[in-house]
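Please annotate this fold before class:
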Amino acid sequence: MPLNKDIHKVMVIGSGPIIIGQAAEFDYAGSQACKALKEQGLEVVLVNSNPATLMTDHAMADHIYIEPLIPETIERIIEKEKPDSILSSLGGQTGLNLCMQLAKSGFLKEHGVKLLGAKPETIDKAEDRQMFKDTMESIGEPCIPSKVVTTYEDALDFAKNGIGLPAIIRPAFTLGGTGGGIAKTWEEFDEIAHNGLHRSPIHQILVEKCISGWKEIEFEVVRDHSGNVLTVCSMENFDPVGVHTGDSIVIAPAVTLSDKEYQMLRSASLNIISSLGMEGGCNCQFALNPETFEYAVIEVNPRVSRSSALASKATGYPIAKVATLIAIGYNLDEIPNFVTKKTAACFEPVLDYVVVKMPKFPFDKFVYAARKLGTQMKATGEVMAIGRTFEEAMMKAARGAEIGVTSLNLEILKGESDEQIIARVNQCTDQRIFAIFEALKRGIMTVEDIHNVTMVDEWFLNKLLNLVDMEDMFEMIREGAEISEEGKAELTQEVYLAAKKLGYPDKVIEKMTGKTIEGSSGVIEHVGSTTGFGVGTAKTIEENNAKLDKARAEGKVAHISATFKMVDTCAGEFAAETPYFYAGYDKENEAEIFLNELHGVVSTGGILSLSKGSTTADAGSTTADAGSTTADAGSTTADADSTTADADSTSKKSKGTIVVLGSGPIRIGQGIEFDYASVQCVWSLKKLGYEVAIVNNNPETVSTDFDTADRLYFEPLTPEDVMGVINTEKPLAVVVAFGGGTAIKLANFLSDQGIPILGTSADAIDLAEDRERFEELCEKLQIKRPRGLTVMNVEEALNATKDLGYPVLLRPSYVLGGQNMIVAFNDDDVKEYMKIILAQGITNPVLIDQYMMGTELEVDCICDGKDVLIPGIMEHIERTGIHSGDSIAVYPSWNLNDVLREKIIAQSTDLALKLGTKGLVNIQYLIFNNDLYIIEVNPRSSRTVPYISKVTGVPMVELATRAMLGENLKDMGFGTGLYRVPPYFAVKVPVFSFEKLMDVDTHLGPEMKSTGEVLGIAATMEEALFKGLIGAGYTMKRSGGVLFSVRKTDRYEIPELARKFYDMGFKLYATEGNAKTLQDFGMEVQVVNKIHENPDDNLLTLLDSGKIDYVISTSAKGRNPAADSVKMRRHAVERDIPCLTAIDTANALANCLMSHYSAENVELIDINQLRTEKETIKFAKMQSTGNDFIVINTDEQEINNPGGLAVRLCNRRSGIGADSIVLFAKSDKADAKVRFFNLDGSEGMMAGNALRAVSKYIYDNNVYGIADKNESKSEPTATMKIETKSGVKTLTLYKLDGKVSSVTVDMGKPEFAAEKLPTTLEEVALNMEGLPEKAIVNQPLTVDGINYGATCVSVGNPHCVVFCGFVDKVDVKKIGPMFENNEEFPDRTNTEFVRVVGPNELKMRTWERGNGETPACGTGACAAVIAAVLNGYCKLNENVTVNVRGGKLIVKYTGDTVYLTGTTEFLYDGKVVI
C-alpha cells in the first residue's frame, strides 16, 4: 500500500528531557521519524520540551515547538497547526501516554486527527496490565502468574494468598520500571506496592511471581498494515530476569539459545505483534527457563523502545524510519533495504558478529547511592561494541564505557579478600561483572559456582574464562615462567595477535606482561612537523607503518593497527553498501577497500557513480531501487538513502577527509547536547565539501546513525581505538571540540602523534585547563578570578584552606559536570571529600578556590583567531555554588548593567583571542560585590550551545566549524561582538532523576546531578520560567502547604519567601528554629518535629499526610543517607513532592505561582518562526463603573495569544494595568464580535461592563461606520448588536454631546440548570409565576467551615450568590478563592457577596474567577439581582440599584431577560511594545 493520500501534515511528539529510563534513544527515533516524513514531502509539526537534542533543530521539521509535554499544550498546538495525523510510537512512553490521553478524551476525533503507528486499543492491550494478560491468554501465550490490582489491599492479598515472596511489582504506563521493584520482605512489598500505585498514571500495578534466574530475551519486531511481520534482532541479557534490561549487559544476537528455543520465542513474538494489530516497531520481552523449554511473556512495548536504537545500530536496520514509513501507508515490500539498497525491507537481518551493550551508571557522581540493581532502571546511558567474538566485544564495551577500566580488571577489587569478592558475586550491582571476572581469575569460584549463585549462563562465564586464560599467559610472560620444553613464556607476535583478537589494548598487554610493544597504541614516531591541516596525515602514517613492518621483520613485537569490517546483515547474500564499520584484526580491511574504490572514482574528477540499484535523485521525484514497488505513476516511494543527493563528497570531488570524535555514553555532566554539536559539525563539514568519518560508541544517538556522516566507526573513544580509525582514514585533521570531555581528553595524545587538531590547538586547551598557566594568562589580561591553589593530597589541601579561608570550592582538573566538586566549610569536609576525590585515581591536581556567593553568568563565544562573536550572555537564577548544569539559566541576562556587560564582552574577546581559540569557547563568570570574576573557561562546545543556537538563530556549530577551517567571522553574516538580543526570553530548567536512585541526596551543589533539561521560550522572563517549570514536571499548585527546613545561614532570607506563599493562602509548616523566624514576621506557622525529636510525629509523617505540596530545604552538608535532612528530602522525592534546595529556586517558583500564567495561556512559539524584533500594539484604555479595560482592534493587528497578553498587560505592576482585555473584530452576525480575557488569561463568555466600554469605543470612533448606520447622530440613543461567546447581545447607547455616556445591555435569558453552570448543588422547585420551574436557590454550601446559602445562576458566566449582613467585613481575598475552586463547581465560579439594602437596592462585592476581587462585575450584578428576586428580596420588572466599589449599576430582571445599565468612559489611547 503506498503513501496514504489522506496524510498531509503530521505531528510528532518527542520524549522530553533526558531522564533515567528515557534517554537519547528516543531523540534518535524521533529524528529518524521527522527525516522520513519530510523525505516523503509531508509537512511536519514537532513538539518536544528538550532543547539539547538534534530533534528540535531547525532543520528537522517545518514547525518546531519547544513546549511542555502536557495534554493542554498538545491540544493547543493541534488547534493552532491543525495536523491531520499524529505519530504515537516514536516519543517513548511520554509520547505514547500523551497520545492515549488525547485519544481517550475524544480530542483527536473531535479535531479530525488520526492516530498513526499504534491504535488506542493496541496500546491498551499492551500497556494496561489486565488487558495485556487477557490478550496473551486469548492467543495461548503464557504469562507469569500475576494479578492486576488498583489497591494496596488487593496487592497484599494476592501476594500473601497467591504467589508469596519474592514478588515483582510492575506499574502500568510508566517508563524505565519507575515505581517498580522486587519485594523480598513484606516491608519492601509495602513500600514498592504503594509507590507503584502512586507512580502509575492509571493507579494500576501488576503483582507478579518472581522468576529471578530465568533468562531474559528480547525481540525487536516489525509489522505492516498487510500483516507482514519480521524480527529485526534478538537480544539476550547477561543478567537473568530481575535486572531491568536497561541496566543489564545485553548481547545481540541471542547467543545461548538452541535453535528450538530461538524459533519458539521468534514465533511467539510474531504471534504477539499480529494479535495486537501493531503497525510499526514493537518490543517483546520474554523470560525463558534455562532448564526447560518453558517461557513466559514479560511485557510488550507497542512503540519504538529503548532497545530499538540498539537493535537498529546492531543490524543497520533503521527500525524507527521503517516504522514511520509503515505508519504513513507503506508496506515492508515497498520500503527499501537501507543496508543493501538493492532489496526491500522485508528481510530479517543475520549477524555474523557479536554486539555487546554495556550500561553507564551515575554512581561515580553519587558515592552514597545504593548500587543494587533491580527492575527499576538506574543507568543514564550506554555504549555498544561490535566484535568478531563475545570476548572482543565485551572488552571494547568495558573500556568504552568510561568507567575507569581498560579491561575487566577493576582496580578497587585487587585489594579485597577472597571472601569479599565472593560476597560481591552474590550481590547484583553494576560491578558484579568485574567481581565475577576477579573470582574466575583468582580461581576461588568455578563456572558452576558462579552460575548457581548468579544464574548467569555458563556460555558467558566460559567466554570470560578465555580472557582469564589469556591473562594467565600474560602473568607467565611477566614472570618468565617455563611453559614447555621450548623454554620460557614470551610475548610473541602470535600471542600478541591472539590477545588483540580477544580485545586487549596495547597498554594493557604491556602492563600485564611487562613487555614493550613497538608503536604501542598506534603511537606515531615522527620528526618535526610532517603533518598539518592541508598536508594531512597519510605520509606520516605510511612512514610509521613501514617502521612497524620493519620491526616485525626483525622479530620484534610491534603494534598491529586494527582492520575494519563493514556491517553486513545479509549473510553475504547481498553486499552491504552502508559505510558502517567496526574494528578487528583480520587481514582484510574492508574500510580501506571501500575508500580505495571510492577515491578511485572521485580522483577522476567526475561525479561518483552510484552502485547499481541504489537511489538517485532526479528532477521531481525519488525512485526506490529496482527491486522495490512504486506507488503509482508520479508518486514518491520510500527513499533508500536521502543523503546520496547531498552536495558532499558523493556528488563532487572531496576536499579530503576529516575525522570527528563523538561524545561517548550519555552521563550526568555530558549529555545529548554534545551529540547535537557533533552531528552539526558533521553536517557543516559535508556541506563544505569534506568527507567526514565519525567515531562514537553510543547506540542511542543520531551521530551513530549510519547515514549521518560519510562513514561511521562504531568504536570506543580511547587512544588506540581512535588511532586505528586514523590509520585507515588518513584524515586531514581530527575534530575534538564537539565531543565534550570525552573527545577533548584525546587532544594532547593526538597532537603528540602529529595528528592535526582542527580548531583550537591541544596546547591552547591545556592552557585553559592548567591552573598555573591559566592564572598567568588572567593576570596578564588583568582579569580577576577567585583566589585558588592546587594540591595533590590531604595535607596540602588543609594547608591551602588555612591560606584561603572557608568556605572553599574543591574540584579536580579535567572533569565533566563538576564531578567530585564540592563546597567545604571545615576541615572535616575537606578530609572526607579529598578521600572521595583521590579514590578516583586522578593524576591531575585538585583545585581549591575561594568560594564567593554571587551571580553566575555564562558566555559562549565563536572565535576565528581575529574576531569574536558572542551569541548571548546567560544568567543563572541560583547564586554560585550550584553547578551551572543544575541551575535555572536565563537568556538574555536580566540583571546586568551596561558597565558589566561591556566588561564581559571585552574580557571574553581578550580571553578567546589570547587562548588561541579557533571555534567555540565557553566562559563562566561571577559577579561578586559588583565586580567581575572569571570562574572557568572550556575551550570547546558546551552544554548551552544547542539551546542558544535555537533561540538566537545563530548556527553556532556551523560558524565555529567554518572558523576552524579558516573562514573569517566577518564574512559569515552574523557580525562580531555581542549578537542582537531577540524579543524573547529563554529559560533552561534542569530535570533530575532522583526517584530512580535510592539514598541519593537531592540537595544541589557544585557537583552536577541533573540528567536532562527543558526550555521555556516566551516574551517575558516570568512566562518563560513558568513554561520551563511545568515542562520540568512541576505541577504548579497554587494552594496547599509549604514546609520550611533551612540551615541557619539561610533563615534571614526565608521571611520574604514565606510571605509570598502565605499571601497566596498556603499553610506554612516549619521546624522549630525556622518557625520562630517566620512567626517573628507575623505569619502563622505550624511547628513540626525533626525526625530524631519524635519518631511518630515528625517531618516524615507530615510528608505522608498529603498536606505538603512544596518542601524548601537547605543544609550545610548532606550526601550521607543517614542524615535527617537527606532522609526528609528523599522522602519528599519518593512522594512526588517538589523539594527545592536553594532559596533562589524557591523564590523563582513562588514568583511564578503568584503570576497568572497557566498552561492554557502561555504563548506557543514555533522556533522556525521566531520574531526578530518586538511588536507594537495599539490599544484604548476604557472604564465602566470602576472596571477598566484594555480595548484592542484585532482587524488592525494580529493577536496570537490573547490569554497570555491579558496576563501581561493587565498586570498593574509591570503592564498597563486593567481588569481584562477586550478584543473586537468584524462580525458576520452583528455589528462587531468581541472576546474577553481575564487577569489570569482565561476567556470569559460574557462581560457586561466590558461590552458597554467597547460599544462606546466603536461608536465614538465610528469603527466599521457604526455611527453612520444610525439614522441620526443627533438622536439621544443608538442601538448596536455585538456577538459574544454567549450569543449576540443588543445594546442601547445613551449619548451626551454626540458621545456615548452610558449603555444598557440586554444580557439575555439566564441559565438555571445545574448541568449548564455546571454545579453539583441541587435544584429546587420554585412555583413562582414568571420564574423558572427549578433553580438552585439558597442551597447549603460549607466553605472554610462556614455554612452559606448559595443561589446559582449563569448570565453568560456562572455565578454563586450568597447573602450576608456586612459585606465590607467579608474577607473576600481569603474566602473568594475557596468559592471559586470549590469542588461543587467543576469549572470554577464567580461569587457575589450581597447585602439587601432595600427592595430596590443591593450592596455587592465580587470575586471573579480569573480576576480576583474587582471594583464591579456586570454579570455579577445581574446575578445578584436575579438571586434577590428568586429569594424574594426584590421584584420582577423593577430597576434595582447595585452598589459596587466602582460605582452604581442598574439591573432589571424580567423573567425572560435581564438588562444591565451603567456609565462608561474613554480614558486614553496608547501603544505598548511587547
About this structure: Residues 458-479 form the longest helix (22 residues). The first strand starts at residue 9 and ends at 13. The chain is about 30% helix and 25% strand.
